[in-house]
Design brief:
There is one protein chain. It contains 10 helices and 8 strands. By secondary structure, the chain is α/β, with parallel strands linked by helices. A hairpin with a 7-residue loop joins β1 and β2. The termini are far apart.
Amino acid sequence: MDTSDAYANAKYIENAASYPPKWEAQAATFREELSKAGRAEIGVRYGDHPRAQLDLFWPEGEAKGLFVFVHGGYWRAFDRSTWSHFARGALAEGWAVAMPGYPLAPEVTISDITANIKVAIEKAATMIDGPIVLAGHSAGGHLVARMLCDDGVSEEVAKRITNVVPISPLSDLRPLMKADLNDDLHLTEAEAASESPILRNKSHPAPVTVWVGAEERPAFLDQARWLSEAWPDTVCEIEEGKHHFDVIDGLLDARHPLLRAILA
């Protein structure tokens, strides 16, 4: 198997190049709208690195709790500002939404990124009371899953987490060692194993629903299934008609089953 091709998403998605600029434009409009309404805190620092910042969006009225969304990009691309508008559905349901950025490979390792996300979530947890739900897309799905391992978020924060939804996650990083991606990721056997959720015990009791699109690359369908099989009482939901780039569209709609799974 050509591992690089197996994990190549864009070449198998029609008009793939149109998605990032569309996301960025919609996110910028959304941030401006929320900022004018006094419902956005942009660039909240949680660490020393320039990318160690998060954006926090407030619903109208008192927040029911905190939704943290962690973006993807194979740990080496994108920024928190590309995804702001995906907070829309949760905000409509009365939840505050935090979107952390993080340092990227090859400047840092995946282990470093995991550590950053831990701190980001714990910082956001100090800003909003009530339950916490986590979701992340692709590499972000890996990162939110890692928060439930024994070196994830603190016990104090873990007790507040009521749902975790990895969307199209990478759950076994070992295959990526054979892909071109590893030119940037620099995964070793030891790190690939320690950063693979399927090889780690789920140490916290929060329920997990793995979400993946039916039209995704077979490798991503496998990765989703592997996590659901590795962790007890984990559900895998396959959304018909969705590929790797539009599988997150359900976050925009308060009534969509994806968002319902997150906020349930």
